[in-house]
From TrEMBL:
<keyword id="KW-0597">Phosphoprotein</keyword>
<dbReference type="InterPro" id="IPR058245">
    <property type="entry name" value="NreC/VraR/RcsB-like_REC"/>
</dbReference>
<dbReference type="InterPro" id="IPR016032">
    <property type="entry name" value="Sig_transdc_resp-reg_C-effctor"/>
</dbReference>
<dbReference type="InterPro" id="IPR001789">
    <property type="entry name" value="Sig_transdc_resp-reg_receiver"/>
</dbReference>
<dbReference type="InterPro" id="IPR000792">
    <property type="entry name" value="Tscrpt_reg_LuxR_C"/>
</dbReference>
<dbReference type="Pfam" id="PF00072">
    <property type="entry name" value="Response_reg"/>
</dbReference>
<keyword id="KW-0804">Transcription</keyword>
<feature type="domain" description="Response regulatory">
    <location>
        <begin position="3"/>
        <end position="120"/>
    </location>
</feature>
<feature type="modified residue" description="4-aspartylphosphate">
    <location>
        <position position="54"/>
    </location>
</feature>
<keyword id="KW-0805">Transcription regulation</keyword>
<keyword id="KW-0238">DNA-binding</keyword>
<dbReference type="InterPro" id="IPR011006">
    <property type="entry name" value="CheY-like_superfamily"/>
</dbReference>
<dbReference type="Pfam" id="PF00196">
    <property type="entry name" value="GerE"/>
</dbReference>
<dbReference type="InterPro" id="IPR039420">
    <property type="entry name" value="WalR-like"/>
</dbReference>
<feature type="domain" description="HTH luxR-type">
    <location>
        <begin position="148"/>
        <end position="213"/>
    </location>
</feature>
<protein>
    <submittedName>
        <fullName>Response regulator transcription factor</fullName>
    </submittedName>
</protein>
Amino acid sequence: MTTVMIVDDEQLIRAGLRAIVAAEPDLDVVGEAADGAQAQSEIARLRPDVVLMDVRMPGVDGIQATRNILERQPEPPKILVVTTFENDDYVYDALRAGASGFLLKRSRPEEILQAIRMVVQGDILLFPAAIRALAAARQDQVASAGRAPRWHGQLTDREAEVLRLMSTGLSNAEIGETLFVSLQTVKTHVGNLLAKLGARDRTQAVIFAYESGFIQPK
């Protein structure tokens, strides 16, 4: 059973998401919160596996709440930020802060459920094309800020290859098939490159790779 918490300042949105998620036999909605501040205390108390986090809320928004939760919780949940527009700068900042992916409020119920299950699985990138588009829009801005990645040159050739394949949305199993290596070998490479990048998960790793110019959006 995967436990889910819903955070949104609109009660109607919370009710709609709850109805979708709670109808599934393998998912359980354990709580709700109406803002980022309440979310932080409730998540510490309820310890959900996945949080659906509205990105724009009064007071503590979804970005700051995501950052605080991931920094302060000893075993933090996976966070999916929920937004109206996929090209929202708030979404990019939330992903950079460590959110594992995002959902559009207009997503179909089956897309919402698939996203929750995918982030729990943790070995595939949600909506890689959308992440590429977000990164492309921010790349010039990041370059002008002069962020020099400390990990350039530290990745082995195989780790770099795995990172590029991750950015296309391939799962660990698909990367293994592409490179003709075992699943365990891929997991080892992923773990090593995440450590070198200082990334929480593959989503954050791909964001860092685009930001640095290591991967160029197409």
